[in-house]
Prior knowledge:
Blueprint: H1 2-6, H2 11-16, H3 20-31, E1 38-40, E2 45-47, H4 51-107, H5 110-122, H6 127-174, H7 180-296, H8 300-435, H9 440-551, H10 554-660, H11 665-752, H12 754-800, H13 805-864, H14 866-869, H15 873-964, H16 969-1025, H17 1030-1086, H18 1091-1215
Helix pairs in contact: 6-8, 7-8, 7-9, 7-17, 8-9, 9-10, 10-11, 10-18, 11-12, 12-13, 15-18, 16-17, 16-18, 17-18
GO cellular component, one term: myosin filament
Function: Muscle contraction.
Protein name: Myosin motor domain-containing protein
Amino acid sequence: MFPFRYKILNPTAVSKEPDxxxxxxxxxxxxxxxxxxxxxxxxxxFFRAGVLGQMEELRDDRLGKIMTWLQSWVRGYLSRKExxxxxxxxxxxxxxxxxxxxxxxLRTWPWYKxxxxxxxxxxxTRVEDEIKKLEEKAAxxxxxxxxxxxAKKELEALYAKLLAEKTDLLSQLESEKGSFGDVQERANxxxxxxxxxxxxxxxxxxxxxxxxxxxNQLFQQKKKLEQEISGFKKDVEDxxxxxxxxxQDRASKDHQIRNLNDxxxxxxxxxNKLNKEKKLQGENGQxxxxxxxxxxxxxxxxxxxxxxxEQTLDELEDSLEREKKLRGDVEKAKRKVEGDxxxxxxxxADLERNKKELEQxxxxxxxxxxxxxxxxxxxxxxxxxxxxxxxxxxxxxxELEEEVEAERQARxxxxxxxxxxxxxxEELGERLEEAGGATSAQIELNKKREAELAxxxxxxxxxxxxxxxxxxxxxxxxxxAVSEMGEQIDQLNKLKAKAEKEKAQYFGELNDLRANVDHxxxxxxxxxxxxxxxxxxxxxxxxxxxxxxxxxxDFDAAKKKLSIENGDLLRQLEEAESQVSQLSKIKVSxxxxxxxxxxxxxxxxxxxxxxxxxxxNLEHDLDNIREQIEEEAEAKADIQRQLSKANADAQLWRxxxxxxxxxxxxxxxxxxxxxxxxxAEAEExxxxxxxxxxxxxxxxxxxxxxxxxxxxxxxxxxxxxxAAEKKQxxxxxxxxxxxxxxxxLAAELDASQKECRNYSTELFRLKGAxxxxxxxxxxxxxxxxxxxxxxxxxLDQIGEGGRNIHEIEKARKRLEAEKDExxxxxxxxxxxxxxxxxxxxxxxxxxxxxxxxxxxxxxxxEEEFENTRKNHQRALDSMQAxxxxxxxxxxxxxxxxxxxxxxxxxxxxxxxxxxxANAEAQKxxxxxxxxxxxxxxxxxxxxxxxxxxREQLGISERRANALQNELEESRTLLxxxxxxxxxxEQELGDAHEQLNELAAQSASLSAAKRKLEGELQTLHxxxxxxxxxxxxxxxxAKKxxxxxARLADELRAEQDHAQTQEKLRKAxxxxxxxxxxxxxxxxxxALKGGKKAIAKLEQRVRELENELDGEQxxxxxxxxxxxKSERRIKELSFQAEEDRKNHERMQDLVDKxxxxxxxxxxxxxxxxxxxxxxxxxxxxxxxxxxxxxxxADMAEQAITxxxxxxxxxxxxxxxxxxxxxxxxxxx
Length: 1227
């Protein structure tokens, strides 16, 4: 019983292992149990406590998986069937609409109306031609009718002749003797042939296993090729990722170049300003020199010396300033290089971190791909198993066909032997006529032989009927098996298409996930780079401000410092706005997550309510069962009292019997019988009550198990709630991190601008309110958790027993009150959250107003800076070169786009060519089908000619028999033996010729096999060259598998043909042995014959032999023509198979090109399905809530009933002083 119940856990071990003990050991090992939890004995398995329940759970899980798989398969089959019907309906509607459109167009076309009016007039002149044609057809029909009449008369004459011959044969058969021994020998020979056929069948099965091994090797090669293709696909994806990274690096470098150009423009502005100041100082110096020239007249020498000293001083000051500028430039370049180095180092670190993350994601996706490939391999193994079953069934069908053919041959041999027996009967009749009258002993022997012949005739008719019945049954089985195999093949093709579709879908999802990960990593790196660049720019601006403070006066320095700080603040303001928008997005995402968590909490609450309702229902059922048990116990006690009373009565009657004597013995016997009847009835009622008690105990156990299941579900719900709380804590941590970032940004905004500080404080205040709402929500969740713990404790108390119903009722009321309070608090929190959201929206509106004000001020500043932008023209010239390079890159991209468009056009042209080739292939297939039909008709004609030749051969044999009646018995037997010997030699020569032809055919097949192997190698070479084209390589692999299967089928057919030839050879050998025996008998009998009859009949035998040789030659020619036609049929079928493969290849190309169009439609449909699923979930949750409320009302009503019953029961127990029944514990 144990292996029979749990064999579903390890079916392979149960099917392979006959020993039940070993089978049980394999099942327990497969279940994953520890060896210390069980022991296997000779006839039983011993478990520890609770292990048997675990085994039942494993069995239930396995059964559940099987049922879900079966349901999904049936559902998929029905949906595919419905989809196919809708497709056919759509095509039919399109055809009807197209025909209606054409008819509506033609209806108003004037030429069509004219044609309708003119067409009847055109046929007026052709009436005579039609009449002539009809007359010719009538004449031909009359001639055919006359021919048929003549043929009918000839056939009737032939039928009469055949009837006469049949009567003669029957009369001869009745006079035949002793053929039972020959029949027995033939049966033994047939048994030997059966054993030979069984040995040949085993050999063919071994060959079939070898072919299956070869097919498995090809399948493994296909798997290897698919793995290589997937590797190449991964390499292509890695190259695309590297290209994307290079594009991102280029964009970042362009951004750095733009920043450097901005700095150069700013330096150019400073240099222009310094040149202006230098010019002013030069003009002042010229004025001073003119004033000094007036004083130089007084002291020329001193003035000359002073002018020289001032000139040298100016030169030294100029050189000093140049040196300072050069030093400042060198320091700036140094700081700039250091900043770039830090940026590059950080970028490298970011790239390494991103690389590690991508490697982790790639490993995870590789695991998913491996799991999907494992599923695909499982599906392919299932397909292989079904294909193997199909091949086995086909082999079985072929074997049955061979058996039918053997039966037919045996039937033909029986007919031939029947003809031989008829001929021998005729000969025996002639001998009897020549011998004269027969003795009484011969008459008796004739009667016995006639009886045996009648028996043999009946046996022959019964065997014919049996053969016909078995043939019809085999045909029916064959048709049923073929139809079932066709349905299985269609189902497997559908499953394969579904698996391929799921595989493509998983690959698409994988690519989308990788692209999303890359995009997020790039955005993160870009944001970090921008922040670092802004920090570096801030440091550079601070250094510039320090340098300008040393070189320029306080006014210009203050002005430039204000302008630089204004630009920095504007950039920081833009960054703050972007961060605010990001925070708003994060807020939206967090609100959605909050809604999800709320929904989960509501679902958990509904589930908890449903569990409580189920628990209360179970309590109600348990109380009812307990009441029933009490009632049954009372009834049992009453019956026991009645039994005791009956026993007392019996004792009373027994005492009366002893006292009063035997006088009333008859009355006592009658009373005794009545008492026995009542006693039997009481015992039956007791047994019925015991059965009811057992049933109630079983229901009690079942309810206890259901309560345990409900407790487990409650534990799962609490685990889900804990997981949701953990997720909420993680979200709170993320919110805290973003709060810190917001605080930093707010501090920067406070330092930059006072107006933004007010709005940022308002935003922080709103955030504080949001945090308060979050804290309130956390408090609600904590309370919810506490309530869940309390519910769990209550469930544990309920599991221990139902002793304190009133306390549970009070706790339920308290919990309902707390639930209402929590619901009110939750609603208040939601209202507060909505208020905070409204405040956030108001703050966003105010922030947008501030942004507009800042944009207005920025426009005013841009008008002021319009003059300074003119000086940036030189920088724009340098940037023009980069723009030209970008334009070149854009032109290159356009060129690539055009190239891709040209490739698309070429693919469309190739698609058109493929469609044309497909149409041509269809035409060629039709032509080959027509040729195949022609060859089949020719084959049928050849078969008819062969049948006619056989009929002529039979006629000639009957003539020979008629002529041989003139011979004496001894000479007849001798010549018959000689003729049979020569015929056997001729047939043996024909058999040798057929064997030679088979050897030649096997050699040609081996050459064809080598040729096909060469073609297979070329196909593999093409497959290695075109690994990037995965679809073509798969198709070629499929083609190779189909060719291998076709070769296996041809080899199997040739093996079957060789087996049939071997059977024929053995049959000929047996015939030769029979003929040799007959020859010996004929030679023994020939010694008794005369010489005159021998000389007379030899001439006649030679003539008949010549006629027989001519008939045999014609038969051999017909056989050769038949073989030629069969060879031609095989060639045409092979060519048709090749055309079909080409058609399938073209169709796959078309499907590949159309698959890209269907992906977008599928994505839209998936989105619609997701929306429909979400709506269905919402409706289902609403329905469950209503059901939970209804169950809660029902539970309250039941509790009130139980309370009333409990009160009435307690009152009744208080009134009764001495109860007779035992108290039953509730637990």
